[in-house]
């Protein structure tokens, strides 16, 4: 069995919440290369999206493995120390605990892992977003595995015509439920349409073939205050009894609105970009997503392909920019600013606190 682990953290960036510098990327590459030589992992790829450092690793130790998670944690800690030395912005921002406790879940970094038996050919896509929350993946993952207008194979491919099973997490109650499509599609949509509370965590084909995994940790739930957005990651397998890669990428051709952006307090379009364009600038955004394609071969990664570098996504980016400009004209008003319930976990309550005693009862 092969496991793909994608573990990310905001450990420091240049010029504000903009981009991870090469100095930190080099440290991560050195640490993971040494881990390959020690037999901890089989292969790796280091990248970034905006101010988040991304560690993509393969191994045969299964999900939530302590040795692999410790490797990621120690790597982030070393990168964060260098970020502090360089006085980078947000140094160690996502490292919310002082000591490692078996795995990085609940410690700040985001994690998506998928264990599977390799097929004759096993292409995967790794999607990584910045300036948004885990619920940002609800719409595209639903479209990939349950929307026949997006994924033609649901209609014409007998291998996936039987549908998929979605594991959904209730972030508020810390509970899980699994729903099967197409039979329970409406029940699924009733949940995942509330992207701030219900997030897709795992997807399997109807016969339990692993298909996708999404990170679901919420930083405010760990720290009990706003310290930054969650910036989720996802792993999606393709072809040979699963949606084709073209169907997977099609789900990102509409820059749908997501929560996050500036100060984690605004709604904006999720714009697919090439890795070289994964720098969050205007209003700390807009929210961005990169997609890398690999072949998993005997536990090794062959690739990547920078999917969103393709000109075929230019029209999507143009739409996102127009949407961004329109929303910015709203300033501090909804719907650009998040709903009051979501603002509860930002810095706004600190502003409202000083006004609470000035309210008087209306007649």
Q: Report the end-to-end length measured between terminal Cα atoms.
A: 69 Å
Unreliable parts: none
Can you summarize the main beta sheet? 9 strands, mixed
Number of strands: 15
Secondary-structure element sequence? EHEEHEEHHEEHEEHEHEEEEEHHH
Helix content: 25-40%
Q: What is the gyration radius calculated from CA atoms? A: 20 Å
In total, the number of domains comes to 2
Count the DSSP helices: 10
Overall structural class, as computed from helix and strand content, comes to alpha+beta
Tell me briefly what this model is.
By secondary structure, this protein is an alpha+beta fold. The chain contains ten helices and 15 strands.
Layout of strands and helices, then pairs:
Layout: E1 2-9, H1 22-37, E2 43-49, E3 52-59, H2 66-85, E4 110-116, E5 123-130, H3 138-146, H4 153-156, E6 164-170, E7 175-181, H5 185-192, E8 198-205, E9 210-214, H6 219-223, E10 233-237, H7 245-250, E11 257-260, E12 266-269, E13 271-272, E14 288-297, E15 300-306, H8 314-328, H9 340-343, H10 348-353
Parallel strand pairs: 13-14
Antiparallel strand pairs: 1-3, 1-4, 2-3, 5-10, 5-14, 6-7, 6-8, 8-9, 9-10, 11-12, 14-15
């Amino acid at each position: 069995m092969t496991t793909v682990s994608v573990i990310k953290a905001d450990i420091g960036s240049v010029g504000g919440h903009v981009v991870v510098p090469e100095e930190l990327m080099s440290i991560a590459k050195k640490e993971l290369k040494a881990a390959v030589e020690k037999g901890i992992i089989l292969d790796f790829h280091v990248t970034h999206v905006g101010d988040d450092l991304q560690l993509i690793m393969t191994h045969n130790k299964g999900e939530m493995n302590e040795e692999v998670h410790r490797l990621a944690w120690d790597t982030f800690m070393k990168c964060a120390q260098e970020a502090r030395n360089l006085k980078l912005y947000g140094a160690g921002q996502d490292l919310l605990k002082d000591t490692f406790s078996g795995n990085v879940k609940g410690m700040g970094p985001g994690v998506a892992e998928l264990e599977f038996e390799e097929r004759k050919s096993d292409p995967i896509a790794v999607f990584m977003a910045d300036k948004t929350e885990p619920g940002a993946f609800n719409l595209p993952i639903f479209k990939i595995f349950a929307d026949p207008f997006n994924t033609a194979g649901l209609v014409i491919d007998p291998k996936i015509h039987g549908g998929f099973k979605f594991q959904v997490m209730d972030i508020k109650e810390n509970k899980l439920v699994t729903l099967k499509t197409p039979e329970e599609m409406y029940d699924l949509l009733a949940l995942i349409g509330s992207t701030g509370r219900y997030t897709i965590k795992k997807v399997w084909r109807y016969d339990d073939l692993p298909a996708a995994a999404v990170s679901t940790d919420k930083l405010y739930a760990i720290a009990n205050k706003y310290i930054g957005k969650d910036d989720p990651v996802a792993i999606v397998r393709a072809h040979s009894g699963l949606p084709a890669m073209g169907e997977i990428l099609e789900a990102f051709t509409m820059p749908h609105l997501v929560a996050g952006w500036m100060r984690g307090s605004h709604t904006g379009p999720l714009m697919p970009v090439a890795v070289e364009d994964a720098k969050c600038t205007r209003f700390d955004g807009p929210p961005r997503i990169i997609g890398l394609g690999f072949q998993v071969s005997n536990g090794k990664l062959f690739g990547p392909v920078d999917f969103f570098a393709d000109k075929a996504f230019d029209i999507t980016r143009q739409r996102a920019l127009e949407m961004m400009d329109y929303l910015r004209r709203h300033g501090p008003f909804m719907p650009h600013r998040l709903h009051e319930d979501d603002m509860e976990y930002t810095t706004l309550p600190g502003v409202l606190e000083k006004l609470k005693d000035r309210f008087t009862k209306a007649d």
